[in-house]
Each structure stands twice: as C-alpha cells, then as structure tokens.
Design goal:
The protein has 261 residues and is mainly α. It is 86% helix and 0% strand.
Amino acid sequence: MNTLLDWVAALGRAVLALCRGAGSIALFGLEGLSHVVRPPFHPRLFLRAFLEIAFFSLPVVALTAVFTGMVLALQSYSGFSRFGAEGAIANVVVLSVTRELGPVLAGLMVAGRIGAAFAAEIGTMRVTDQIDALTTLSTDPMKYLVAPRLLAATLAMPLLVIVADILGVMGGYLIATLKLNFSAAAYIRATVEFVQLMDVVSGLAKAAVFGFVVALMGTYCGYHSRGGAQGVGGATTTAVVSSSILILALDYVLTEAFFSR
C-alpha cells in the first residue's frame, strides 16, 4: 500500500512540476511579447539576431532541404513503381516539402543552432551577473535580451522555409530528371499544377510558430540557468531538446487546425 502511495505521490509531483514549468514558460513568453509591442525598441539587437538566424542558418537549412528532396524523390519512386504510380512523385515531393518537411526540418536545424546559441549566451550572462548589471543600469533584460530575439526568430523562420521549400522541390526535380529519366517540363508542370496556396501558407505559418518556440525556449532556459558552467550546459541541452519536442508536437496541432475536415 505504501509503495502504491509513493508511486501516486511521485506521479503527482511530476504533474505539478510539469504544470508549473508550462505556466512559467507561458508567462515568460507573454511578457516577452508585451515588450515586442511596447517601446522602446532596439533595432541593432533585432538586426543582429535576425542576421544570425536568417543568414547564418541558411547553409545548414539549404543542405538539409536539398538532400531531403532528393531522398524523398528516390523513396517515392521505389515505392510507387510497385503500383505503376511513378507520375505522382512530383506531387508527393512538393506536398511533403511545403506542408511538413520544409518547416519541420528547418525548425529542428534552427533549434539545434540558434536555440543553443541563445541559451548559452543568455545563460552565461546570467551566471556572470551581467543580467543583474543590466537591471542595475535601469535596462529591462526582457526588453534588451528576449524581445528582439523573439521577434527576429518569428520573422526569419518563414524566410528560411521559403528557401527550404524551393531547394527541397529542386532536389526532387534533380533526382527525377537526372537519375529517374523524368521529363523536366512534365515534372515542373505537375508540380505547379498540384501545389496550392494553402499548402505554402500553412508551412509558412508553422515556420513562424516554430521560430517563436525556438527563441522562447532558448531565451527562457538561458534566462533561468543556474550553477555556473554546468548550469549553462544543462540550459543549452534543455533548450534544444524542449524546442525539438515542441516543434514536433505543434506540427501535429497546426496540421490538424489547417487540414482537418
């Protein structure tokens, strides 16, 4: 009986800790959003974060998208050839990339790169008392450190996903035309005729949400890090893992919202 009660108590503590953490993150995000829409604004910090996300993350996102499109075309061909449906490869590639793989893979790549960087930078500032120094100098840390990063990530991610969509479709096109002997004109025509505006818009909306989540978890974990270098390392790991899990979970939620009947 005592063992059962211990299990129930442990489960209750875990649930309470989860709810407490979710509430803390939600309040942190709402406070950050409030600073985004309230003056003053720090354009230099925004541009720095935007450049870091949109430009310096471009190579890894581009390579991921190209090879994903190539693999998707090959796998689709190997599966569809069993049923004589090779002509649907262009449709599958463009639909998969624009709706799902473009925003999700770009979000995961940015989470590994930018989420970790945000957590490490702000976490180092926290454990070295630089954030407390900002408060002493009458500078709001949320306004100075969090708000520019939230806005930059939310605006930069859709731009990255546009590039990822184009390169992912191009990767499928290259494999289909150079290796699988598809007609280039027929492949392009099938792609353009099949894709709809809603497919692209849903992917870009997901990208904006994923960008916000990556910046939120990176800044939150860094802002609340404790315990010196070890604490900063733990905050960095937590930021990347939690961002990745949230991206995958929110991908389902947003897909259900956009395409459920």
